[in-house]
Amino acid sequence: MMDATAGCPSGLAPATPAGVAQDPAAFVTESRGRRILEIMVRGASCGGCLSKIEGAVGKLPGIEQARLNLSTGRMHVEWTGGLQPKRVIETITKLGYGAAAFDAGRQDNTEGQTEQRLLIAMVVAGVATMGVMMVAEPLWFSPDVSPETRTLLHWVSALIAIPATAFSGRPFFESAVASIRRGRLNMDVPISLAVILAIGISIYETARGGEHAYFDASVMLLFFLLIGRFFDARLRRRAYAAANALAALQTATATRIGPLGAAEAVRASDIRPGDVLLVAAGERLAVDAEVVSGASEIDLRMVTGEVTPSAAYAGQVLHAGAVNLSAPLRVRAAAAASQSLTAEISRLLEAGEQKKSSYRRIADRAAEAYVPQVHIAAALTFVGWLVFGASVSQAAFTAITVLIITCPCAIALAAPMVQVAAAGRLFKHGAYLASGDALERIAAVDHVVFDKTGTLTLGDPKLVGDYPTEQMAKAAMLARASRHPFSRAIAHAAGAGPVAEHVEEHPGEGVSGEIDGRQARLGSAAFCGAAARGGSELWFAVAGETPVAFRFEDALRPEAKETIERLRSMGLSVELLSGDSDARVAKAAADAGITEWSAAATPVSKAERLAKLEREGRKVLMVGDGLNDAAALAGAHASLAPGGAVDVSRLASDCVYSGDSLRSVALIVEVARASRQRMRENFAFAALYNLVAVPVAVVGWATPVVAAAAMSLSSAVVTLNALRLSVMTLKEDGK
Amino acid sequence: MTVLIYMLPAALLLAAVGLAGFVWSLRSGQFDDPAGAAARILEDKDPIP
Q1: Is the minimum CB–CB distance between B44 and chain A shorter than 8 Å?
Q2: Which residues of A608-695 form beta strands (DSSP E)?
Q3: Fewer CB within 10 Å, N side or C side of chain A?
Q4: Can you give the pLDDT at residue A16?
């Protein structure tokens, strides 16, 4: 039960309703006699939340450490003794926050380590750049410095630049070596070459007392490139952490009945075929299973898109994702897992993922076109200067300046800067990107396929029609005691109120109870002694009165029609593809203004439909949330999933939008298109820059000061262009 | 120009100290929870160990 002060004490954030608290015992780890649990906390937003949660958890017996990270929402709890881990979760949910055990093993920390390594490399390069600048600047602007002082200053520059390059350049050197081993050239090859050659030629020049040294250029180059790399890694880690946090909040645990009849909490991944599981009312089935005993109703919304629950009885096979509604069920995990629906979907998923990983990013294509040309230009410069009678060292010096000045600062920053700006913009609107090239693929789509249930519609049945207030109030007294979606809809429409006495749930039939001393029933037509009229209905009967029927409908989202019109105006065609029955899909399509639709689609036929569209040359954006959409999401050119989607579907999609508004779909496409435009502009600018810079370097005018100015200017231009994404006005914002 | 002999090492030393300070603060987790740090300063109670 929650009290009035549930949730954030500031009143800024709503309290999270307590759901079925899962047993986190499977996620507890032990270290040096202490038991450790990592928890994802949802809804904590201020210092008040922090002290409320940490204080309450800290009062539990045996707690040694309880620390909540407000930035990531992760809480670390350590305790000694026999405290049940479930009590920690319950303590937090009672305060009005969402809490779920976090599988620490699932958290792969390499992304965070890469980010930190790049950050340190970037800072080292930055400090070194400032240091070398301080020493080199007098040389750029005072031609009357004596050769002795000049050489001294060059040596000091070398002292800073050589170790800094060796340290900060490692990410590039390692990647370049790996790439050459695979027999390919990536952007890091010319970067590494330029940096190493610049340092080499500068040492040579300094040693013979020459006029120009490029120590400043080499560290500055690394500094700018590392800025791009760092933001790229940070973005990826954030998207990864967000995906992980969402997954953790729906972590699949199950209750397994051991051979001696004792119940234990296990992870879904630890369930073996043949295990007997207990599925409590309200729980989601983690694996395909056969019902052993018990009778209940199950909600297959996530599996088939069908909103009306169906009956579950002994011997029936249920698919993962089904939610048990009314009574506990004992099930046996499917023996032939390879023939299960989930196995089939995961095969389709794999095929889809393979296809996606073969997509080549714009930045990679640019690098492949660019790298050979730079090397050819440098080689030609070397040969050209030799032909025109220069010495070998002079020819080499000029060739290396070509490499340095053309080194792809602008090109390397062109894509990451745009992605960072676009991801930041999408974050503000509650959408986050799951992959780096998602924006490019979303920008290219020309056809949008929507799933119906939960995506285009609200996913929850709504009461339709007018009913007498008195009957409504009475029916609600029974409805409040049931978990059936239709009952929830009645309870929701009637608002808060009392519950009938002696309420009993009859799985597959309905609920019965006593109202004002009279027997009352809410359920199927047969259960209430009435003739069924078909469709989504629920009957209510009080002894001595005529039964009344309540009708329901899975209502379209209010913004659906508008969003679809908006997508059309952006030049996209729209299609509805659902697993639900013909009549309901036709109605939803008509309401939303979609002319192209198909119903009764299975997961396989959904994926086939997408493959057919692809063969026709369409680039499809799939929007869906159910288990039956997962394969289609993975196979589509690009895909979106709402935050409430099942795990598999969220992981299979390119971008997840939270906030229950379909408007996000149009917004994401708009931002993706704008960012592709910015990327193209950036690459065009980088090409233009090279058209000017290469001739300057080839004829030997690129002194260190010219190189430094060209590099900073070109980097600043692409960064500022990318930042236009953060300030652009979106059509969706006006509403 | 002999001033360079004192100035350059002093400048380099200061830069190195700053750099070391940053790396230390990063490694010791001071940037792990900026939002939490901002909120905790308003707390009177001692944190739970």
Answers
A1: no
A2: 620-623, 638-642, 655-657
A3: N
A4: 55
